[in-house]
């Protein structure tokens, strides 16, 4: 799948920032690809880049309109169809990370064919996966897990990839969601994989590697979330994670989209270790990543210090304060000599 850049980011009329997390992720990690945004009346998200009409976007050189929205169920609102058709007629390809396939909507399929444009459904893979086997494989793997969905798992492993490479470590981000695939150009949207093959798909995206190599696997959902725990468990088993980082948003009391109480970080650590030992008996936590965006700096640093003391783990906001403490722990827990010896 080759998606032409640069992008016009379509935000529709989403009610909040989290609903446009795909667009924010691409804009944060690939800003050079994002020329402008297109928003409908009532949109509460803003990427901070120019608002463009379709004609302006084409004139600025945009080649693909990306539907930068992640909503419950991955549905495409009916009132967005006309906007997508107009984009195709204006000369743009359209890419989506939603569950619904663009080509399954007759008006969109007809407009794409009539105008010679491409439709990209990033969430859907043509790859055939085997069931997971759980057989140990060389290389090291780190998985981000969460107290909730939309808690920073993707940003954490992207920041760790950058931080570990700066430290001279061999590390690669492995995308398991549509935004990550847009950012990295590879990966699998795990929540669109048939349940029996989730762990096998994760084994496929993080195969056997050199003993010095780290695959940094993007987590999804939460083991405690009633909607997404099945995906989270398949990811954990397929990753055979040597290490994991717990991601947390401290202002929430219930998990996103449901009435269930947010689990504690300790509960997440304990359950991740218990379940992760099925495919890696030596799995261990190496840090806590906290999204402190809603806190001022003094409160954020105080919270991180408290969490570090409570759990005896480095705690940081990867975006705000960097990932150096977690990288330090990884280096200490997995020195090169140990990695070579385990090959």
Keyword list:
343 residues; alpha/beta; Rossmann fold; 2 domains; six-stranded parallel sheet; five-stranded parallel sheet; 12 helices; 35% helix; P-loop_NTPase; DgcN-like; DgcN-like_N; EBNA-1 nuclear protein
Describe the protein.
The structure is a single chain. This protein has 343 residues and is α/β, with parallel strands linked by helices. The protein has two domains: 7-121, 3-Layer(aba) Sandwich (Rossmann fold), CATH 3.40.50; 140-342, 3-Layer(aba) Sandwich (Rossmann fold). It contains twelve helices and eleven strands. The chain has helices at residues 21-29, 54-59, 81-90, 106-115, 153-166, 178-184, 198-205, 229-239, 265-276, 297-311, 324-333, 336-342, and strands spanning 7-12, 34-39, 64-67, 93-96, 119-121, 140-146, 170-174, 213-217, 243-248, 284-290, 315-316. The protein has a six-stranded parallel β-sheet, with helices on both faces. The longest helix has 15 residues, at 297-311. It is globular, with a radius of gyration of 20 Å.
